[in-house]
Amino acid sequence: MNHLNRQTYALPDDLVAAVRASLRAWYESGNVHRLWARDATLWTGTDEGGWLGWLGIIEDRRESETYLRAIAEEVGPARFTHALLLGMGGSSLCPEVVAGTFGRQAGYPELYVLDSTDPAHVKGIEQRVDLADTLFIVSSKSGTTLEPNMFTQYFYDRVGQVVGADKAGSRFIAITDPDSTLQQLAERLGFRRVFHGLPSIGGRYSALSTFGLVPTAIMGVDALALLDRAAEMARACASCVPIEENPGVTLGTILGILAARGRDKVTIVASPDIRRFGAWLEQLLAESTGKTGRGLIPVDREALGPPDLYGADRLFVYLRMVSGPDRSQDAALDALERAGQPVVRISLTDPYDLGAELFRWEIATAVAGSILGVNPFDQPDVEASKVAARTLTAVYEQTGSLPPEAPFLQERGIALFSDQRNAAALTEAAGRDRSLVGYLRAHLNRLQSSNYFAILAYIEMNDAHEDVLGLLRHAVRDAKRTATCVGFGPRYLHSTGQTYKGGPNTGVFLQITCDDAIDLPVPGQRFSFGMVKAAQARGDFQVLTERHRRALRVHLGSDVEAGLATLHTAFQQALRR
């Protein structure tokens, strides 16, 4: 069966001409060969050549088969009922996509993913698994990432209480780069296994390495089948393939050329069976390209509407599962294409085609990064947020509290915060109506043509909360005709947070925080999960404002549901005026 080249695109004539001209230039310059030769000058000429290990997927298959068989021998006889992956960003998103797409496999553990420091979310995950019969997968390239270390400390302690401290290590495995601090911890605590990543593969490009394949195999999904589909795509993207037939290079050229011409809101539409793929793709695009004032703004999980809701800043990408398409999506994309919106269509025959898509999009993102003139393998603004959060955490450890802060408005149980510059601008725009509705209206009125609106929610990540945030985002989309994004913190810090801070300064941000009704201590530490989440939110907001982003923070208090209901009502009133 042919799993390749089911990619079509419909673009306005001027964009078709620009894409073809770029492809010709790439052919004449031998750029595809330079990519496969790992030539850093294809991008910024710094360290890019050291981060292209993911190109060796075909050569690495035999080694992959060896460790995947080892997993079967290691995990199969143990008969774990659950597996819980503890990780963030590139270490967690691909396993989450696979688990959400394939579901539980008979005879294998059910996989859950923890990538949030929200204490209610951590406790909720704990309550869904049997601690005595759960395999914990600690996934971190460096072993120094704060969140996985906190998760490990918490669950190692909890498992020890259930099965005994001497047996706790047998319930843990690690996926990490060689000689990392995580490997050292695993050896000290007696983890049952350590799987090594390849240092030349960055986190968000690691889906087809141990970081994605080991959890896939543990949950009983055929990881080699995914790898084989990816290898087919790798051959289709080789330098010997005519450039106009190269699916990854063509897609990357479309992304880069359209972004350079203002169509940088990559709106992801996926069939219901593969809808979770958007979360992985969101990270790849945003963290790879959003820097030095340029980049792609991925828009995931935004419901499709009629053509008149969209401006000239969109590119629609439709990942369509042939075996289970959504006819309403088909109709909506057809209408958008007839209206002149650019649409890329990619067809998948079955869920294992996700393996091909993982590689197609890695190539496409590298190509788009070259066209945009950025290094697609670093994440400077993600690091800035981490530094700010660590600084606040250090203050807490020294003083027992975070630095004091004062809202500029308190009303109906909600408090508003911002930096001096944003608060002054909002106060002036609100005029005499210095109420919650007045300030929200002033903030939403900052949206201009080709801007986007992003909700950054540091609350428990669950379906009910996402539904309410969906009402907010779509109300803004419909009223302002602007692209909208929703991210749960701190999860999005390792994903779209890079482009929000380092990409085009076209975002208007609404951060949502709360007081945690419950909190959880981190064993061996003075801080708690709730304190770290608060520090991450404040550090994130600090970096946004340092980058001169238009940002407002809404604090809901401890009754999150009531606060969200109040916020929803205020949004409706603000948008109606």
Question: Descriptors for this entry?
Answer:
577 residues; alpha/beta; Rossmann fold; 3 domains; six-stranded mixed sheet; five-stranded mixed sheet; 20 helices; 15% strand
- Strand segment count: 16
**CATH class category name of the largest domain:** Alpha Beta
Question: What global shape is seen?
Answer: globular
Percent of residues in β-strands: 5-15%
- Largest sheet entry: 6 strands, mixed
Which structural class do the helices and strands define? alpha/beta
Name the CATH superfamily classification of the largest domain: Glucose-6-phosphate isomerase like protein, domain 1
Integer-rounded radius of gyration:
23 Å
Strand order of the largest sheet: 11-12-16-15-13-14
Number of helices: 20
Known CATH architecture of the largest domain: 3-Layer(aba) Sandwich
Mean pLDDT comes to: 95
> Helicity level, as a percent range?
40-55%
